[in-house]
What we know:
By secondary structure, this protein is α/β, with parallel strands linked by helices. The chain has helices spanning 17-26, 33-43, 57-66, 138-151, 153-156, 175-186, 206-213, 230-236, 245-253, 279-289, 314-326, 353-361; strands at residues 10-11, 67-68, 73-79, 85-90, 96-103, 108-111, 115-117, 132-135, 161-165, 198-202, 220-224, 263-269, 294-300, 331-333. Helix 1 crosses helix 2 (33-43) and helix 7 (206-213) runs parallel beside helix 9.
Amino acid sequence: MTQPLPARPSELLGADLPALEHLVEGLGEKRFHARQIYHWVYARRVESFERMTSLSRPLREKLAGGHTLSRPRVVKVQESSDGTRKYLMAAPGGGQVESVWIPEEDRLTFCISPQIGCALDCHFCLTAQLGLVRHLTAGEIVGQVLVLLDDNATRARGRPVNIVMMGMGEALHNYDNAVAAVRLLADAGGVGIPRRRITLSTAGMAPGILRLAAEPVRPRLAVSLNATTDAIRSRLMPVNRRYPLDTLLDACRRYPLAPRERLTFEYVLLRGINDSAVDPPRLAALINRHQLRAKVNLIPFNEGGGLDFAEPSTESVQAFRDDLLALGVPVSIRRNRGRDISAACGQLALTAAAGRDAAVGKKTPTHN
Length: 368
């Protein structure tokens, strides 16, 4: 007689408080234990049920018997000459993902990934070369943050943490998991990173922006714009064929902002393609026509990986910035960090051979 397979453990990293309440009641325990578990997992960041000492031993044994707390496992860490650290992590659900720890004098920035690979095929981005391997779960997204927090605890020196969901993948393509992760990260009783310090980046999925606008917990929004005409943007970013500039910017206009908050438009400067003298006035006109409270973050293209684009000159980047400022558009130039370890914007592509093999070799069916 064939023996039944044992039940698979349920993963608790990524579970919210209502899910944990349902869990403990199903175990025959009092509902208030759910909040204790939630605190241990997200605020105290423990990795085993045994360490949850405010719970009774029988409850800890019940949890350990059928449930797991699985974080991404660090496979490799590379450190840049500028202090940036790039992490290659094995995701609990299979495949590998990259995250980046970026130190500044007054803050830390964690660049985390919502997917392994990406389906949107932005032609200037190395991640796009992987295609979409799979969506990450909310627990796998939050788990990247927990790993970076714990591994850099002595380096943090009390500096506040900013989270930018700008690593591998398109967050709004993995909407439910990305938003669930934002809630857990922003919850004062959870990981406890203030909402104003969490930014979600999108290549321009307008319906997802409108959906996100209705969420009770909203991150800051950054939109990867990268062109001032539909013709050029569609050539660079196929998503623009479905959601052209006017559709995208109308969705951006509907995104609620706090009194001093602005949308961020990320603009990767590509020599001879989107950095001409006519682009700054066209960009300013788009922002003004759609009545957007926005700032522009200029990102000089990071060369490498065989992509057929070139970085603009320093003078060209500065001229683009100065023209926008003269037109009344707030603008900054992103300092590229971690370029020597392929950790800068657009460079996350699992360049370690083991990482690429693991990611591509474990493809799973994708879902929305």
